[in-house]
Amino acid sequence: MKKTILQLTQFSKAIEGLFKKRQLLLEDFDSFQKELAENPEMGVVVSGTNGIRKARLKSSSSGKAVVLESVIIV
């Protein structure tokens, strides 16, 4: 079954800001999206949120991790 990833406008704006500041590369984010589509249960469930997960995405440009919060509905 094909999985689709939808982004909220606020999330898209935040990601674009990271691209502009060069804290995140497009290739890193594309890879993260593919991994998320293959494994929608990746990351840690944030308690009390009814399914919101927090996943870390390593940025190859800075060597630091960027925290991305995603809502995953299976």
What does this structure look like?
By secondary structure, the chain is an alpha+beta fold. It has one domain (9-71). Helices cover 34% and strands 22% of the residues. It has 2 helices and 3 strands. It has a 3-stranded antiparallel β-sheet with strand order 1-2-3, with helices on one face. Strand 2 (52-58) and strand 3 form a beta hairpin. It is globular, with a radius of gyration of 12 Å. 4% of the residues are buried. The model has no long low-confidence stretch (mean pLDDT 77).
What is the strand and helix layout of this fold?
Layout: H1 9-20, H2 26-38, E1 44-45, E2 52-58, E3 65-71
Antiparallel strand pairs: 1-2, 2-3
Q: Report the C-alpha radius of gyration, rounded.
A: 12 Å
Shape: globular
What percentage of residues falls in helices of 4 or more residues? 25-40%
Q: Structural class of the helices, strands and pairings?
A: alpha+beta
Element-level helix/strand string:
HHEEE
With strands numbered from the N-terminus, the spatial order across the biggest sheet is: 1-2-3
Main β-sheet description: 3 strands, antiparallel
- Overall strand count: 3
Unreliable stretches, pLDDT < 50, 5 or more residues? Answer: none
Report the average pLDDT across residues.
77
What count of helical segments does DSSP give? 2
Quickly count the domains. Answer: 1
Key phrases:
globular, 3 strands, single chain, three-stranded antiparallel beta sheet, 2 helices, 74 residues, alpha+beta
